């Protein structure tokens, strides 16, 4: 049985869509950009090298809990026996948070699965079971990935503080370089993305019958609700910032560039 805009309960229109605008531009752009990020992140996650240059630790490898290079493990190496890249131990949590994110669902449903590719455009699939079956049913644990994402964000905040530290061989004191600024921008976008999440909105103000009896939670709920309107923007900005932060560390580690120090 036909589905989507060609279903039996819809108007009988032979065209796949009557839209005359460039509706395909959004899903195509999302497909290209997101695919590029996935390829880059996969390469960096499996490489297991060039992820630490004092005082910068790549956000892809933080916290480094496996067999890590000297100086990169601030919380020990409980998985030192792990035979693969240390990034694979921790990346499942931020990756699970993003892949189950409400905005990212819309992005990859439209761009990768074409379900549907745009409003008013027919789906190419013969049927759709929603998120009631494997693997899409796993998206329902998004709230639990949010808790893990908060922990990861706290650890990345700690890494950002360490980025103000001196390089090896330098005297004690606060130092700042271009890498420090990149880490600051990255952690700001990560917190904006994490705290503007729908799950955060539910955690701070969900299931309350009377907001008047919970003024603090109501204020937090209002704040998160306001941020939630820009959740998609923060999703993309944090995606770019985390890749740029990792790339900067990689370029420093390989000797391709030197850190621009301000003081």
Automatic annotation (TrEMBL):
Transmembrane regions: 23-43, 79-97, 144-167, 173-193, 234-253
Recorded superkingdom: Bacteria
Keywords: Membrane, Transmembrane, Transmembrane helix
This protein's name: Uncharacterized protein
Species annotation: Nocardioides agariphilus
């Amino acid at each position: 049985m036909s589905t989507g805009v060609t279903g039996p309960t819809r108007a009988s229109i032979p065209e796949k869509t009557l839209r005359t605008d460039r509706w395909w531009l959004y899903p195509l752009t999302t497909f290209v950009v997101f695919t590029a990020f996935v390829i880059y992140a996969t390469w960096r996650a499996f490489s297991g090298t060039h992820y630490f240059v004092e005082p910068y630790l790549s956000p892809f490898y933080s916290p480094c809990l496996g067999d890590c290079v000297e100086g990169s493990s601030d919380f020990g190496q409980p998985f030192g026996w792990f035979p693969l890249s240390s990034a694979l131990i921790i990346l499942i949590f931020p990756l699970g948070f993003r892949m189950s994110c409400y905005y990212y669902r819309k992005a990859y449903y439209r761009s990768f699965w074409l379900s549907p590719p745009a409003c008013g455009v027919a789906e190419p699939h013969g049927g759709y079971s929603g998120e009631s079956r494997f693997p899409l049913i796993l998206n329902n644990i998004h709230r639990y990935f949010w808790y893990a994402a908060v922990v990861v964000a706290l650890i990345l905040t700690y890494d950002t503080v360490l980025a103000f530290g001196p390089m090896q061989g330098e005297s004690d004191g606060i130092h700042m370089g271009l890498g420090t600024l990149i880490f600051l921008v990255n952690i700001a976008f990560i917190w904006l993305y994490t705290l503007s999440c729908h799950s955060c909105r539910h955690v701070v103000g969900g299931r309350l019958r009377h907001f008047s009896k919970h003024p603090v939670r109501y204020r937090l709920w209002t704040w998160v609700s306001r941020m939630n309107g820009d959740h998609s923007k923060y999703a993309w900005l944090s995606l770019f910032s985390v890749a740029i932060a990792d790339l900067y560390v990689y370029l420093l580690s390989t000797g391709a560039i030197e850190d621009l120090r301000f003081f």
